[in-house]
Amino acid sequence: MKYSTDSAYGITESILDSGAVLAYLNWGAGTIPLPYISYAGGIANTINFLPGKKTITYTRVAFDNSGSVGTSLSIKYRYIAIPGGVLVGKRDIRTMPYEEVCRMYNIPL
Description:
Layout: E1 2-7, H1 13-18, E2 20-26, E3 31-33, E4 36-38, E5 45-52, E6 55-62, E7 76-82, H2 98-104
Antiparallel strand pairs: 1-6, 2-3, 2-7, 4-5, 5-6
């Protein structure tokens, strides 16, 4: 497994307890919600995230557990922290496109 941990000051204990954290990746082909299954290098792998208080860890795990798929410098990550009690509508926001979530919450692209 490969991983990187970044500061994420918007992720508070309150958001972890009663809100939601969404994460996305972008490598130039659009912004895609995590988790994401990739076949980079011909090896099936998943890119996912784990939010923590003021941190977020992005992981990449090869399905064959070979550890042979690294993290790419060309991948950019984004996260959205939504406080509890904020109306999210009837759709599952975890599967909505990044741009749509940004419009819904008036987040600048």
